[in-house]
Design a protein that fits this description.
45% of the residues lie in helices and 16% in strands. It contains 10 helices and 8 strands. The protein has helices at 19-32, 40-44, 51-58, 67-81, 92-101, 114-124, 146-155, 169-177, 192-197, 207-218; strands spanning 5-9, 16-17, 87-88, 104-113, 131-135, 162-166, 182-185, 202-204. The strands form 2 sheets. A 6-stranded parallel beta sheet has the order 5-4-1-6-7-8, sandwiched between helices. Strands 2-3 form a two-stranded antiparallel sheet. Helix 8 (169-177) links the parallel strand 6 and strand 7 (182-185). Helix 3 packs across helix 4 (67-81). The chain is globular and about 55 Å long.
């Protein structure tokens, strides 16, 4: 029986450009607690560790006691607006089609809420993602590799035939914790310098480079 080959992708900043909708949701939550508004460039630097930490970073020190209220407001707003402006990065649908045509299984693992991950994948990548795992409220978050390991187990892939793809330093750590190689993309929310400083082994700048790197890893 052929060994399952698997690629697991991060979502925000890797497959999907979610920054505008995340910024709008953060600013809506901040407006309800009389906290300041943020530019997209500022929110970009706060993304990567899940929504609770995102909102905690956005709240000023003297309003941290409002974290639960602001987080719930953010989540409710984002649930209803996560498709307003979100788009796929260039070449992503075609990349996933080529992976499937080469017999490679595709998964998505994100710190975003599980229902949001599934909705985005079902809506914008229908039929192109085999497994999608997000975070349950109060549950573990990356760099804990729980979702990566879950997808590996369900698909029957081992660490020698799995690659994790992400845009952040958190994703590099997640892959290491799951004992799988990581390919970093520099079009997302951590820039090239940050990835290099964190020890990224391979960094790609477009979907074509990513496909070449993935096929090289998985065809060896």
């Amino acid at each position: 029986m052929a060994q399952t080959k698997l690629v697991v992708f991060d979502l925000d900043g890797t497959l999907f450009n979610t920054l505008a909708d995340l910024t709008n949701a953060v600013n809506y939550a901040m407006s309800t607690v009389q906290a300041r508004q943020f530019e997209q460039s500022e929110v970009r630097r706060m993304i990567g560790n899940g929504a609770e930490i995102l909102i905690s970073r956005a709240l000023p020190y003297d309003k941290q006691h409002l974290l639960d209220e602001a987080y719930n407001t953010y989540s409710n707003y984002y649930d209803n607006h996560l498709l307003d402006n979100t788009t796929l990065y260039d070449g992503i649908p075609q990349l996933l089609d080529v992976l499937h045509s080469n017999g490679i299984t595709v998964g998505v693992f994100s710190n975003k809420a599980d229902k949001q991950v599934k909705l985005l994948c079902d809506t914008l990548l229908s039929g192109k993602v085999d497994y999608a795992v997000g975070r349950q409220k109060g549950g573990a978050r990356k760099p804990d590799p729980f979702g990566l390991l879950d997808i590996m187990q369900r698909s029957g892939a081992d660490s020698k035939h799995t690659v994790f793809v992400g845009d952040s330093t958190v994703d590099i750590d997640t892959a290491a914790n799951g004992n799988v190689p990581c390919i970093s993309v520099d079009w997302g929310y951590n820039d090239h310098h940050q990835l290099v400083e964190h020890g990224a082994n391979i960094i790609v700048s477009n979907a074509h480079q990513l496909l070449e790197a993935l096929l090289q890893y998985l065809h060896n």
